[in-house]
Amino acid sequence: MARARKVSGPVVGLDVGTTLMKVAEVRPSKEGVQINAVGVAPTPEGVIDESGYIQDPQALGQAIRQLLTQAGIPTKHVVTSIPGQSALVVRVIEMPKMSPSELDKSMAWEVERHIPFAAQGDVVTDYAVIERPDADPNDPNMEVLLAAAQQDVVDAVVKTLFAAQLDPVAIDVQVLATARTIIGLQPEKYRDKTVVLLNVGATATDMGVFSGGVLRLPRTIPIAGNHFTQAIVDSLAYRVEGTDPRERFAHAEKLKREYASVILERLGPSGAAPTYGTDLGAPTGLIDFSQPSTTPGTVDFSTGYGEPSFDVEEEQPAVPEEQPAPAPVEPEETDPLRIEVFDAIAPVLGDFLAEVRRSLEFYRGRVQGARIDEIVLCGGTARMKNLDKFLAQELGIPVSVADPLTHQEALVRRYSMPYLQEVAPLMTVAIGLAIRDMID
Prior knowledge:
alpha/beta, 5-stranded mixed sheet
């Protein structure tokens, strides 16, 4: 199996979504890792479709180059991921124990069974046996982590990196990069815990259940930030300005950023749902660039372990430390517009809760004696006020919002601390990509 190329010195993690581009420059240090710089900017309109396919690599590459310049990042070595979900599949599959040569032959059939697109010639795939410390040696079965991506999607990513004048090291899997940041950087905290990572992007939510730092269940939830925005467009038509659909969506996005919150006092008496709306009910995957070529090689799982949309305008290149931005005045819970926005998004909250609950029940049914110790939210929508409290209340599980810039040494002098705290939930994937070879 091809090994992903390793580099010394700083590495850039690049997380490109349909709405936002996020970058983090990280270097190894005596204490572990050191975050030198971060940057966030809107993804240029029209360069990526909703499925995650890059339609204009040159334009996107130029935008990435501009973001790196604004963030003060000169490093060329980059690790990135596949944007979107429809072109990428990550599965944990159970198979009878067998030798590596037997597994090679069997996986050709398994790939066709588990990916929703054609697997003949136009798909990049790889897999690895998952080694669990608590595995029963007498168990006749084993678990295998499979990743597959469409070749043309991977090629477009590579072209984009070259257009940005970057040196690609690897292409990773987002759910695993998220785990590397949250779990891998705090191994003592999560060593004996089962944690659920929810990366709430623009078009979908990446969910991963990790036990003892090892992936047990990956899943994509088809509800994310844009669904909340569309609910505002649909329910508050008189509040949304503009005639062009894109203009109206942008205005609804602004309303969401400023007013969206979960008003716990307006939940139904059962505590399980709002009173309106729908019923609520460690390996890492890498593309190897060790050979100089414009065509990527294989996905590599040999070394161990999207697109946020909740806030765009506040995620421009940061406010200098010497000119801190004034703290925004948040509307009170009794603000009529905040109540209207909550009423509009309540059905989506219900659907999101139901999907998370269904996934947790599936995991508990699949793993005997399974428990969930904590849920960690990341992505732009993670910053929606009281979303963590809402999920904790409904699921009976502690919920926190990821803050990778607090737990690690960060020398990001270009930005104020309030700004870093604001963008921290957005940076989990980018940081996890950058530290691929810096932690165990």
